[in-house]
Amino acid sequence: MSRALAILKEVFGYHAFRGRQAEIIDHVADGGDCLVLMPTGGGKSLCYQIPALLRQQAGHGVGIVVSPLIALMQDQVAALTEAGVRAAVLNSTLSSGEASAVERDLLAGRIEVLYVAPERLMTPRFLDLLDRTRVGLFAIDEAHCVSQWGHDFRPEYIQLSVLHERFPNVPRIALTATADSLTRNEIIERLALDDARVFISSFDRPNIRYRIVEKDNARQQLLAFIKAEHMNGDGGHDSGIVYCLSRKKVEETAQWLAGHGINALAYHAGMDAQVRQHHQARFREEEGIVMVATIAFGMGIDKPDVRFVAHLDLPKSMEGYYQETGRAGRDGLPANAWMAYGLGDVVQQKRMIDESEADDAHKRVSSAKLDALLGLCETAGCRRVRILAYFDESAGPCGNCDTCLEPPSTWDGTREAQMALSCVYRTAQTSRVHFGATHLIDVLRGNSTEKIRQWGHDKVSTFGIGKDLSVSEWHAIFRQLIAHGLLVIDHGGHGALLLGEPARAVLKGEQSITLRRQVSKPAKSGERAGRGGTRTDHTATMDADTLANWEALRRWRTATAKSHGVPAYVIFHDATLAELARSAPESLDDLAEVPGIGASKLERYGDEILEALRAV
Ligand code: ADP
Ligand code: ZN
C-alpha cells in the first residue's frame, strides 16, 4: 500500500481515492507544481493535505495553505485537528498572543499544515518567518480569486506570484472550482504556473438533481417543495439556501417561510453586519436552517450538508447558476437544485442589463449569458447535458434531472408560433411601437382591454385568433419563442418584444417549430418528483432499529460538537453517522471499517460511540 493511501485510511478513514486525487497527490508529493480544477465537493482538500503530510514526514517542512475564507480555514483546521493532524491557522481572528504562539510552533517545526490568509502571508514579516522555516509546499485554494473578471477577485492574490520567485524549490498546488478557460489561463499567468501540470476533472455533480418549474406563486411552490422533499422524521427540516434577487424579497421571503414553520433566516449585504454574521454562524453551526439570501451569501459556504439550493429568481448566467446550485450536496449525498422561473424574470434581468452602466460590448455578453440560461430553462432535453455543454463538456442524459425523470412531451407549435409572431408584427406595424407579452396575449385572446381599444388593436388581423389557448399556455409559448431567438426583448426595459432574425422563415412557413408542452400543474411538480425518490432524508429508508441508533448517535454528536465548539459535521458527516447507525458496530475493529473514521477519531470517540449504540 502506498504511503498516500495509508494516510487516507489512517488519518481520514477513507478506503479509496476519488477521481484524480491519487495522481495529483503523487505529483505534488514528488515536488511538482500543478493547477487542479475540480468541482465543489470533488475532494480538493485532500489533494494538498495528504501531500503536506507526506512532505512533512519526509523532512521537507510544513504545508502552507493560502485561503481567503476565514470560516472555511477554521473548519478545515478543526476537522484536521479532530483527525489528529497538527494544523493551525493564522488570520485576523487571532489575538497577537495566539498568533505568536502559532509562529513559535511554526519555527519549531511542530505544525504539519498551516492555513494563512493571503494578506497575512504577503507581509514582509511573515515572508521573513518563512525564510527561517522549512516549507514543504504551498497550496493556493480558491485560486480563481486572482481573476480580475470574476466576482471573487482579491487583490492580495495577485501578489502570490512572489512565492515562486522567493521559494523556487517549493512545489505549489493551486485549486479552484471555477471551470471556464478564461479564468484558468488567468490563474496560470498570474501565479506563474506555466510549467505546472493541469488536472481537469469533470465538472459534473451527479448527486445534484436539477429541476426548473414554471413560476406560479413561487413562494407556495417553494414551501410545497420543502415540505415534500426536505422534512425530517423529527419534524425539523434539512439545511438549504434560497436565493432571491433583491434584499426586500429576501426579507419578505424569510419572514413568510418562518411564518409557515420553516426555520428561515435572511442574509444580504444591506443588513447590519453583526446580524448578518450571526445568521451565517447559525447556518453553519446548527442543523436544519434555511438561509434566504442574495448572492452576497456566496463564497465560503463550505457547509457539506446543504441539502437543497432553491432559486426564486433567475440568476444572471449559467456560471452563476452552477456556482450557486453547487453549494448543495458537497458531501456527495443526494441534493436538490430547484428553481421557479417565469417570463417576468427574463424581462427583469434584461432590464437590469440595459440599465446597467456597462458599455455595449459588455451588455451584449451579458445578454448572451442570459440567453444561455433561458435555453436551459426551456429545454426539453436533459438539463445536465445542457449545463455541461455550456462548460465544454459532453455527456449523455443523466437520469437525475426533471426532464430526464419526466420527459416533457413536445408538440408542433408552428401555427401558434406564427400567430404570436404575426401579432408582434401587426401591432408594431399599426402603432409604430413594440409591445410586451401581456398585451400581445390579450390581443391574441381577443380581450377588449382599454389599452387594446386605445391602440386600436381590436382591429388588427390577429385579434382573437388565439382564444383557444389559456394565458399561461401563451406565456409558455412566448418564453420558448424568446429562448429560440424568434423573439427578442427590446432594449429600454419595458419588456417589449421584437421579431428576431429567424422569425422570417417561420412566418413564411419555411420552418416548423417544436415546442415543449407545458407541465399542467406546476405547483404540484415538487410533490410528484418527491415520490420519484429525491428524498434526501437519511431516516426515510431506515428500519426502526437503525432509526433508534441514528437518533442516539445524533444526540451524541450534537453534545460533542457543542462541547468542542465546532459544527456537528466537523465531528462526523451525516454519511458516516448513517453508516454507523446501519452497521451498528460492536467492536473497535468493526468501527474502524466505517468510512470517515480514521485512527484519531477511533481513539477519541470509539468507546463513546460503542457506548451510545449499546445504550439504545
Ligand atoms: P472541495 O474542497 O473540492 O469542495 P472537499 O475537499 O471539501 O471538497 O471534499 C468534499 C467531501 O468529500 C468531504 O466531505 C471529504 O471528506 C469527502 N472526500 C474527499 N475525498 C474523499 C475520498 N477519497 N473518499 C471519501 N470521501 C472523500
Ligand atoms: Zn438529465
From TrEMBL:
Keywords: ATP-binding, DNA damage, DNA recombination, DNA repair, DNA-binding, Helicase, Hydrolase, Isomerase, Metal-binding, Nucleotide-binding, Zinc
GO molecular function: 3'-5' DNA helicase activity; ATP binding; DNA binding; four-way junction helicase activity; hydrolase activity; metal ion binding
Superkingdom field: Bacteria
The enzyme's E.C. designation: 5.6.2.4
All residue ranges annotated as the HRDC domain in the record: 543-616
CDD domains in the cross-refs: DEXHc_RecQ, SF2_C_RecQ
Keyword rRNA-binding among UniProt keywords: no
The keyword Metal-binding is assigned to this record: yes
Reactions catalysed according to its record: Couples ATP hydrolysis with the unwinding of duplex DNA by translocating in the 3'-5' direction
A Pfam family matched in the record: Helicase_C
Biased composition (Basic and acidic residues): 524-540
Domain Helicase C-terminal stretches: 218-373
Region (Disordered): 517-541
Gene Ontology CC entries for this record: bacterial nucleoid; cytoplasm; replisome
InterPro entries noted in UniProt: DEAD/DEAH_box_helicase_dom, DNA_helicase_ATP-dep_RecQ, DNA_helicase_ATP-dep_RecQ_bac, Helicase_ATP-bd, Helicase_C-like, HRDC-like_sf, HRDC_dom, HRDC_dom_sf
SUPFAM superfamilies assigned: HRDC-like, P-loop containing nucleoside triphosphate hydrolases
Protein's GO biological process: DNA recombination; DNA repair; DNA replication; SOS response
Gene3D superfamilies per the UniProt record, alphabetical: HRDC domain, P-loop containing nucleotide triphosphate hydrolases, Winged helix-like DNA-binding domain superfamily/Winged helix DNA-binding domain
Domain Helicase ATP-binding: 25-197
Protein name: DNA helicase RecQ
Species of origin: Cupriavidus pauculus
